[in-house]
Design goal:
The protein has about 400 residues and is an alpha+beta fold. Helices cover about 40% and strands about 15% of the residues. The chain folds into two domains: about 1-35 and about 290-395, Aspartate Aminotransferase, domain 1 (Alpha-Beta Complex), CATH 3.90.1150.10; about 40-285, Aspartate Aminotransferase, domain 2. The longest helix is centred in the first third of the chain and has 25 residues, at about 1-25. It binds pyridoxal-5'-phosphate.
Amino acid sequence: MVFGDLKLLVKEKIAKEIERGILKVTKQKIVSLHEPSFDKNDLENVADCIKSTYVSSFGKYILNFEKKISKITKSKYVVCTTNGTSALHLALVVAGVKENDEVLIPSLTFVATSNAIKYAAAIPHFVEVETSNLGIDPVKLEQYLKENTFKKKHKTINKNTGNIISALMPVHLFGHPSRIIELKKIAKKYNLILIEDAAEGLGSFLNSKHIGTFSKMGILSFNGNKIITTGGGGAILTNNKKLALKARYLSTTAKKNHSYKFIHTELGFNYRMPNINAALGCSQIKKLDNYLKRKRLLTKKYFTVFKDSKYFEFYIEPKNSKSNYWFQTIILKRKYKSHKNYILKYLNKKGISCRSAWSTLHKLSFCKNLPRMNLSVTEDLHDRIINIPSSPNLV
Ligand SMILES: Cc1ncc(COP(=O)(O)O)c(C=O)c1O
């Protein structure tokens, strides 16, 4: 009984320490996790687009928005899409991932990463992440590939399933750059197509290079919860003209340019970002620098209040990187991980919106029989991560 009371006390202590820290930093009573903010310019741009009547997949704002993303990321080509999930799907198709190919991804990611692979009729194959950057662990990945694959006609074959492993799709979790340079070397050695899921990473850099641009293709998301938003939206980044043209063509139902005939040359998709969403993007993107600065300030303030906690660590960007700090993150010390759900319930009840990392994908009912390596670090991290309020407008 006494021992039980003590446990309750620790749970409460941790929850209250986090509550106090967040309230001290944000000076707000009700705090959302990550909310978009809009101003007069956003309203004017959207109104202008409506007046033009070009609200769908054609119009000046789409090309303009793509140019702006290209300037920030230094990606030669940018193809805007309806959302990040469709960008991932399209990138997989265009890059040549085929039916029944396996695509290596982390399990600690949003379900869209794996869904997009399934939409391409390919098979998600889950690999382990590391604690230092929350992305795929290159050392474990290489060892795993060495032990579990063989080469046949330049292709990497999974010894256990007989399938071709054709691609590697790292995720830059919460906007923090993963070890993409090491992963790129492995992709080259094993002849894997490298596609970066940088959905959360607009404004994040590794060695001064924007994430999503280290590979054949990368993708971004502009969903309402991202650092800037187009309502719904995504983009493919690539330096390869052929791939960019193909992606753009397929995103507009593979329709040939013709003033009155409908000629579709192959199976395409209705994945092009509507002009009305791009109009919002064009005004939102002007605020990116300001949001990035504010998010770093928020990190600094959280770090000051949380750095001495004996219950958890406040997560700081990996070495050599400049993260956009999309989601601010607390990682409970192992000893206290059983308290995570209590802490989340407590904080949310108080009006402070905090959340757990997504369900690890290998545990989802429709993914649990998919190929995977040992995922003990993934599971351990999942049990310890708490995302806390992260909106740029909190400071
Ligand atoms: C890692 C990751 N991949 C893909 C996506 C999909 O993006 P969207 O929601 O724009 O489809 C998200 C969105 O949250 C994401 O976090």
